[in-house]
Amino acid sequence: MKYKIKAPKALNATINLPSSKSISNRALIIHAMTGGKIQPCNLSDCDDTEVIINALKNMPEVIDIKAAGTAMRFMTAYLSATEGEHTITGTERMKNRPIGVLVDALRYLGADIEYVEKEGYPPLRIKGHALEGGHLEVVGSISSQYISALLLIGPILKNGLKLKLTGEIASRPYIDLTLWTMCEFGASAKWTDVDTIVVKPQPYQERKYLIENDWSASSYWYEMMALNGNIDSEIRLEGLMDGSKQGDSVVKYIFSLLGVKTEFENIQNPEDRDDKANIHTSAPTTVTLKAHRCLLPRLDYDFTGSPDLAQTFVVCCCLMGIKFKFTGLASLKIKETDRIEALKKELRKVGYVIQDENNNTLIWDGETCEPTYEAIDTYEDHRMAMSFAPVAFKLPYLEINNPEVVSKSYPHFWEDLKKVGFEISEE
């Protein structure tokens, strides 16, 4: 499938963003460990969350998590620490995404895990049973999903978990999000030093839980506001929370440098609103985006804490003519695709030449090339499709191959674009 996309001249709409899949996936694993029946409210309807819902509901002998990296890591830990025998597998790309560090850590805690095909990679055969827990050291620069997977099972380990992270710690905000969600369900889990987390063997408690909407998804609307060029444009995004623990909420600060300002709607008095499913000290509200003139000639930023925003800013800055040096991108090599190489190749199609250094840095010094305007390839990567869609504001039209990949995190993305005036036709 291929979409031909033509952007509107201005934006003025209210968008209900998808629920946070990061929080949804954590809450679902925790909910399973409570043994309760009250499902979290406002669960994400994306592919990555659906595979966890189906796995936990049906618990088949073979669990196929498809392309969901979070599901692979979280379910591997969960299956290891709970009774049952399962094989967990996924797409061909998933079978080439490393998982050895997590498996080694779980084996150290006593898990019974075997590699089915290739050492260090899924699929895995797991014979689950109660684990002792205790002290564990893990390299901090690995994917935060490995670390979060270990933390999530900490409360059900007989001796809890004392996790020391060695070296540089990547994606710390995602680790903090995990700890925050765990504590929301009654766990005792906290940093006791700059590199050490202690989780006590204190069981989770069942409770009603409302999941806020996704700050990662908001980034594409910020990008559209930055690129559409009409100062009268205004986008209102529903369901976001000021003071959110989502690491990607930093998007509002970075885009303020590019001229897109954020206004939070005042939250009504907590005594006046329905709190039946709400347990947060603050509540989801509506965010209004407005664009102002941007005079920034260059942007340097370390994306170690929010790597999922990198594609949005790489594409946006090129199209705005803002030179950049973005560091902290090592995890992009092992995502749904090699995002560093994918960005380099696809930006050439629209006339921009970016360089990489040390497999963790992307640089644009203003170099351009003759654009081919070929259709943008998405590489089975939802963020490639969504980060390039706003480029349509700078071209007569844009073509994107395999646009259906957005279902991984934002299933109604294209429908939302149509609501604000995008013309989208299937080629």
UniProtKB/TrEMBL annotation:
Q: Which residues form the Enolpyruvate transferase domain?
A: 6-417
In Swiss-Prot or TrEMBL terms, this protein is called: 3-phosphoshikimate 1-carboxyvinyltransferase
Keywords of this protein's UniProt record, alphabetized? Amino-acid biosynthesis, Aromatic amino acid biosynthesis, Cytoplasm, Transferase
What gene makes this protein? aroA
PROSITE patterns per UniProt: EPSP_SYNTHASE_2
GO BP terms: amino acid biosynthetic process; aromatic amino acid family biosynthetic process; chorismate biosynthetic process
Q: Name the Enzyme Commission number(s) assigned to this protein.
A: 2.5.1.19
Q: Which organism is it from?
A: Segatella hominis
What the protein does?
Answer: Catalyzes the transfer of the enolpyruvyl moiety of phosphoenolpyruvate (PEP) to the 5-hydroxyl of shikimate-3-phosphate (S3P) to produce enolpyruvyl shikimate-3-phosphate and inorganic phosphate.
Principal subcellular localisation of the protein? cytoplasm
A single Gene Ontology MF term assigned here is:
3-phosphoshikimate 1-carboxyvinyltransferase activity
Q: Which superkingdom, per the lineage?
A: Bacteria
State the family named in the UniProt similarity comment for this chain.
Belongs to the EPSP synthase family.
**Catalytic activity as recorded in UniProt:** 3-phosphoshikimate + phosphoenolpyruvate = 5-O-(1-carboxyvinyl)-3-phosphoshikimate + phosphate
How this chain assembles, per its entry, is: Monomer.
So where does 3-phosphoshikimate get bound?
K21, S22, R26, S143, S144, Q145, S171, D308, K335
UniProt binding sites for phosphoenolpyruvate: K21, G69, R97, Q145, R339, R383, K408
Q: Where in the cell is it found?
A: Cytoplasm
| N-terminal signal peptide | none
Q: Where is the active site?
A: D308
Instruction: Output the InterPro entries linked to this UniProt entry.
Output: Enolpyruvate_Tfrase_dom, Enolpyruvate_Tfrase_sf, EPSP_synthase, EPSP_synthase_CS, RNA3'P_cycl/enolpyr_Trfase_a/b
Write out the pathway annotation from the protein's UniProt entry: Metabolic intermediate biosynthesis; chorismate biosynthesis; chorismate from D-erythrose 4-phosphate and phosphoenolpyruvate: step 6/7
Q: Which GO terms describe its cellular component?
A: cytoplasm
